[in-house]
Amino acid sequence: MTDATPYAQAELLMRALPHMQRYDDATIVVKYGGHAMGDEQMARDFAKDMILLEQAGVNPVVVHGGGPQIGAMLNRLNIKSEFAAGLRVTDKATMDVVEMVLAGLINKQIVGFINNEGGRAIGLCGKDGNMVTAHKLTRTIVDDTTKQEQEIDLGFVGEPHRVDSRVLDALLGRELIPVLAPVCNGDDGQTYNV
C-alpha cells in the first residue's frame, strides 16, 4: 500500500472501513511460526501488520514458535535432537535451550521489531502470571512391524490444560501488543514447551 498514490490509499481505506469496524475491540490470536521468522524484512512487515491491527482497534495477541531456531541453537551447543511422532522429544537439557530460545531470544526479537516499527509490545510466556498451565503430552503410535500401539514419552512437551487470561486482560486495549512464548509451567512443577 505504501507505493500507491494517496488517493488510492484513501479509497482502499474507505472500502476496508466497514470490515475494520466489525472487528473493533476484538481480540485475535496470531500464530507466528518459526519458519516465517527467517527473513528480517518479513519480520519488519509482520511487526507493521500487528501495529496496523492495533491501530485499527483490534487487539492482536502474538503467539510464536521457533522450531528452526531451537534446532540451530541445539546444533551450536552440540545437543542432538530426537523426534518421535513428528514432535521433538525434549529432555531437561533441551528444555533449558527451548526456554532460552523461545522466552528469551525469539520473544525479545519480535518485541524489538514491533517496538522499532513504532508499536508497543511486551514479551511474555505462559509462565508469567501463571497464564497457561500445561499437562505432559504423550503420543500413541502404531509400530509398523508389530502393529501394536505404543505410547511415546515426549519429555518436557506439554499441551495447555488451564488458561488464566487476567494478565492479558490487563494489557489488552492499552495500546500494547502481547507477544507470548509457548513455555509454560505444568501442574507437576516442571517447565513444558507447548
Record the SSE blueprint:
Layout: H1 6-22, E1 27-32, H2 40-55, E2 59-64, H3 67-76, E3 82-84, E4 87-89, H4 92-116, E5 121-125, E6 132-142, E7 149-163, H5 166-171, E8 177-181, E9 183-186, E10 191-193
Helix pairs in contact: 2-4, 3-4
Strand content: 25-35%
What is the strand arrangement across the widest sheet?
A: 1-2-8-5
CATH fold call? Carbamate kinase
CA-based gyration radius? 20 Å
Shape: elongated
**How many extended strands?**
10
Percent helix among the residues? 25-40%
Q: Looking at this structure, what is the CATH superfamily?
A: Acetylglutamate kinase-like
- What's the rounded overall pLDDT mean? 92
Number of helices: 5
What structural class do you assign from the helix and strand content? alpha/beta
CATH architecture classification: 3-Layer(aba) Sandwich
Determine the N-to-C terminus distance: 36 Å
Query: Which series of helices and strands comes N to C?
Result: HEHEHEEHEEEHEEE
Low-confidence stretches: none
Count structural domains: 1
Multimeric status of the protein: single chain
